[in-house]
């Protein structure tokens, strides 16, 4: 199973790299990449959730690991709808395949709305397990932030996931982040005042 996941990841990311080499370095048709590393510091547990995204015009490609389940890889293809004036939006419906500890498929949606320094970001999916309907699950990660400066933002966050367990079905928290050039660092603190508080540190780079 690990060999199958590794081969899938190699060809998915390798294909994106080949396309990137063929694309011009600048201009409206160039590839844009975004790599994330999400570090979960949970009581008596720790894991990393990496995400890689590639966009070219309307095309959106994405790869995730440890998202739907531990030791599980998912690959996605989607279509970007972008526009707006005062209210800017990016809406990306997607379809993904999931292999690893969990095997299935998932329709998904990513939404980003920007208005006068406020941003709502939400990513959701309905995981459909190939083995049993009892494993079907609705995932969601949503952040609402305000940026007083281009390099600084803070806000609230909510997650619904199965990769870790707490007493709450929906993890709720606060966040603060900062950026420098193409790098971003965001720290989340979830479930303050409840039984299972934990910290998430997210590092991302655009290139």
TrEMBL record:
Keywords: Signal. It comes from Chryseolinea soli. This is Uncharacterized protein. Residues 1-20 form the signal peptide.
């Amino acid at each position: 199973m690990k060999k199958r996941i590794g081969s899938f990841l190699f060809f998915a990311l390798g294909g994106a790299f080949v396309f990137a080499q063929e694309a011009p370095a600048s201009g409206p048709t160039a590839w844009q990449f975004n790599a994330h590393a999400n570090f979960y510091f949970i009581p008596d547990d720790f894991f990393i959730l990496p995400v890689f995204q590639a966009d070219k015009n309307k095309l959106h490609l994405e790869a995730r690991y440890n998202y739907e389940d531990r030791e599980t890889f998912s690959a996605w293809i989607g279509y970007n709808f972008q526009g707006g004036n005062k209210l800017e939006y990016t809406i990306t419906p997607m379809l993904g395949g999931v292999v690893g500890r969990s095997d299935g498929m998932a329709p998904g949606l990513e939404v980003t709305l920007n208005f006068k320094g406020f941003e709502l970001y939400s990513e959701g999916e309905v995981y459909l397990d190939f083995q049993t309907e009892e494993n079907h699950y609705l995932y969601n990660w949503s952040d609402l932030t305000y940026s007083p400066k281009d390099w600084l933002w803070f806000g609230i966050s909510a997650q619904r996931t199965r990769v870790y367990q707490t007493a709450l079905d929906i993890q709720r928290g606060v966040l603060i982040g900062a950026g420098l050039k193409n790098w971003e660092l965001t720290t989340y603190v979830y479930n303050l005042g409840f039984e299972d508080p934990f910290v998430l540190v997210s590092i991302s780079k655009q290139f």
